[in-house]
């Protein structure tokens, strides 16, 4: 567990939870990133503007961090652009089919004690862990 | 996706939109501080057979430590501050779409170490893998829309 960063993980998690709570309190909506983004992509008459505002904040968040701390976040990608395309397609299609991702099911759905969200979270955690096991230890061999 | 009761856009409620922007900003900040914006760190959590990094579990736990009591309290209110009602997912039953969608999402998540929030928050890094992922993710969402969603 040499890479474990408990303090920053706990603080970051609190901020994420606070963000989702603020959204429900002020706007009455679930902070599900995949749902919000697909709503920007496929605009509706009544629910586009707030989604754009949320996504703008989400994208500016890391820049606010850079402005305050003076350093950029570490972003290390191990997947090639081609593999990233395959992964992106699966995530885009899968989150729509499964009605949510880590935020909507994992942070908000579980907080509402939704049976669907508990199950979805267990399933995507499991397939992600198996995928990493296969690519890292069976095929990749590192 | 669309709800006739929704007033935030129609009323152009600037105050409400500012709060939504702020929650997006906090969310992006939380992803950055926690390190979840970094695909290598997410893979470190998913790689239970390697040098396991439990950080992601702690991020979820501390997020839930806020949302569980927060949602409980808020949903007891009659309505949110700037809307006429709460907009909560209506489906309650587990169906094959939920399971297969979550399974497919997990495979993509494991392949790249990216899920929708961190991927979008990471686009200003201009990393070519993050950008390719986001473009493909949007394409995947559109594909689902055109293949499986009913349009009016």
Whole-number radius of gyration of chain B? 18 Å
Mean pLDDT score of chain B, rounded? 94
Q: Approximately what portion of the residues of chain A adopt beta-strand conformation?
A: under 5%
Sheet of most strands of chain B = none
Please work out how many helical segments of chain B DSSP would assign.
6
Proportion of helical residues of chain B: 55-70%
The total of beta strands of chain B comes to 0
Tell me the number of helical segments of chain A per DSSP (H or I, 4 or more residues long).
6
Question: Care to describe what's here?
Answer:
- The complex is a heterodimer of chains A (142) and B (152).
- With 142 residues, chain A is an all-alpha fold.
- Chain A has one domain (6-139).
- Helix content of chain A is 72%, strand content 0%.
- The longest helix of chain A has 25 residues, at 115-139.
- The model of chain A has no long low-confidence stretch (mean pLDDT 94).
- The mean pLDDT of chain B is 94.
- Chain B has two domains: 1-88, no CATH class; 91-152, no CATH class.
- At the A-B interface, helix 1, helix 2, helix 3, helix 4 and helix 5 of A face helix 1, helix 2, helix 3, helix 4 and helix 5 of B.
Short description:
Chain A is mainly α.
Write the layout of secondary structure elements.
The complex is a heterodimer of chains A (about 140) and B (about 150).
Chain A: H1 6-27, H2 33-41, H3 49-69, H4 81-97, H5 102-109, H6 115-139
Helix pairs in contact in A: 2-3, 5-6
Chain B: H1 14-34, H2 39-46, H3 55-74, H4 96-112, H5 116-121, H6 128-148
């Amino acid at each position: 567990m040499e890479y474990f960063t408990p303090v920053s993980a706990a603080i970051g998690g609190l901020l994420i939870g606070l963000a989702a709570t603020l959204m429900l309190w002020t706007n009455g909506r679930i902070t599900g990133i995949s749902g919000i983004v697909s709503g920007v992509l496929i605009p509706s008459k009544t629910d586009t503007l707030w989604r754009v505002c949320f996504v703008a904040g989400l994208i500016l968040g890391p820049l606010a961090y850079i402005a305050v701390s003076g350093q950029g976040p570490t972003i290390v990608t191990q997947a090639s652009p081609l593999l990233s395309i395959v992964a992106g397609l699966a995530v885009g299609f899968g989150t729509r089919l499964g009605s949510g991702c880590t935020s909507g099911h994992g942070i908000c759905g579980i907080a509402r004690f939704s049976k669907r969200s508990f199950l979805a979270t267990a399933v995507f955690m499991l397939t992600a862990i198996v995928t990493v096991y296969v690519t890292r230890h069976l095929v990749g061999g590192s | 996706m669309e709800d006739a009761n929704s007033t935030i856009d129609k009323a152009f409620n600037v105050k409400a939109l500012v709060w939504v922007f702020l929650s997006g900003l906090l969310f992006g900040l939380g992803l950055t501080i926690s390190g979840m914006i970094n695909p290598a760190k997410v893979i470190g959590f998913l790689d239970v057979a390697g040098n396991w990094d439990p950080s992601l579990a702690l991020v979820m736990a501390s997020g839930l430590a806020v949302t569980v009591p927060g949602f409980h309290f808020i949903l007891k209110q009659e309505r949110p501050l700037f809307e006429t009602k709460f907009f909560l997912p209506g489906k309650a039953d587990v169906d094959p779409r939920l399971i297969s969608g979550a399974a497919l999402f997990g495979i993509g998540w494991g392949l790249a170490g990216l899920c929708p929030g961190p991927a979008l928050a990471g686009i200003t890094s201009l990393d070519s893998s993050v950008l390719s992922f986001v473009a493909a993710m949007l394409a995947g969402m559109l594909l689902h829309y055109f293949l499986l969603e009913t349009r009016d």
